[in-house]
Write a structure and sequence with these properties.
Blueprint (H helix, E strand, L loop, with lengths): L1 H11 L3 H18 L5 H8 L8 H7 L4
Helix pairs in contact: 1-2, 3-4
Length: about 60
């Protein structure tokens, strides 16, 4: 999520706090639209790539990809 926070700060001119809150609101909105079993995929997708995660790859594993 750090990568998205930095992007929001740089491109939208948000503060760290505003960017973090915006992502939390977006995450909650998306999770409200999908079944609970998909929530971990959303969490993984929004996780920071700097932690060694590949969100798209992680998501595809859940679909047999």
């Amino acid at each position: 999520m750090n990568e998205l926070v930095e992007k929001l700060k740089g491109e939208a001119g948000l503060t760290e706090e505003q960017a973090t809150k915006a992502l939390e609101v977006i995450k909650e909105f998306i999770q409200s639209k999908v079944p609970p079993m998909m929530h971990p995929m959303i969490e993984n997708f929004l996780a920071s790539k700097s932690e060694g995660n590949d969100p798209l790859s992680d998501m595809m594993k859940n679909f047999g990809g």
